[in-house]
Amino acid sequence: MRPDTPAENVDHSAEAARLERTAGLYPEDAEALLLRAAAHLELSGARPEATALYDRLLASGEGPGGGLDNPALVRALKASNLWEYGHEAEARAIIDGIRASAPRDPAPWVIVAEALESHDELEAAEATFTEAARLLIPSGQDTPPQPAHPLLFGRHRVRRMLGVPHDEWDTLADTLHTSPVSLDELHDPKRVWSLGSSNPAELEAEITRLRAELGTYREALSRPFPVAILHWPAAEFQELLEAYPALATEYPSYEEHLARTESALRELAASGTGNLGIVTGTVPSYEAFAASESASPSDATLLPQYATTLAARGRAVAWPPGRDSGCWCGSGRGYGECHGAPTA
């Protein structure tokens, strides 16, 4: 699926089947590909089939030589899916198991907390968000890592729905939120009455709009498919141009390549595109991709397709990094001192 393809124009069943086939071709990326396939099955209404994919992944992590990168995430997605088609008891048991195992990744916590929230278990959802925040965000930290932001946003939302006063973490969530619409307004339950109408259809439309807004963070976190820009490390860049000099038109110099990469990402962010990422190319991988497309690696039109394929295989790294994190270019400097500097 192209990252800019509207969801209503996607054949989710066909996309799930394509991703399953791709997982067979790239077993090293099967986890990311099958998770995306399961997401498409859920969207198509084939929830039992999605559960079967989650079970397939979990089984692969239990056998000899197996091992999922994030089994807690798979279990969380399975629990959320199960609850949606009537398997509440099993879903609750999985959620309890995830909380007891205390994963160090924010994503499973967000998914199970939102599963509780979506079934009106607001107190349990708030307790889950808070438990995760205590575990993953050190006290007094005012710049938590990007993956932890949805924990704070979700916790803020649930506490707003419960009508409890703000605390320090709610204030931190307000600070991290960059949308023109404040979190207090976004999460205000009274917005549902903002139309000033007693028409049930109009109220239902407002509820639908709210749910769409509040679901943005989870969709970006648990169903990632970044709009990804291709980056070549210095050694790979040199090897690429030595092997395929025709690409010099696309890549005049390595410094220009780095500058264009950062510039393209900033322009996308400024236009409102979310969930941005960077994928790192290698010459052997690119040559194998070109061969699979029956094309020449010298064809520059393959480059964005190659980037999209790497992103679909779960190879994208989120952009921008934290200001104190290492720059994506591999310089060894912090992002804020390198390509993340205002004058970069």
Give the helix proportion (percent range): 55-70%
What is the general shape?
globular
- Strand line-up across the major sheet: 1-2-3
Q: What structural class do helix, strand and pairing data support? A: mainly alpha
Number of strands: 3
Question: How are helices and strands ordered from N to C?
Answer: HHHHHHHHHHHHEHHEHHE
Mean model confidence by pLDDT: 83
Rg (C-alpha, Å): 22 Å
Major sheet characteristics:
3 strands, mixed
Taking pLDDT < 50 over at least 5 consecutive residues as the criterion, the unreliable ranges are 1-7, 216-224
Number of helices: 16
Distance between the termini: 32 Å
Strand content: under 5%
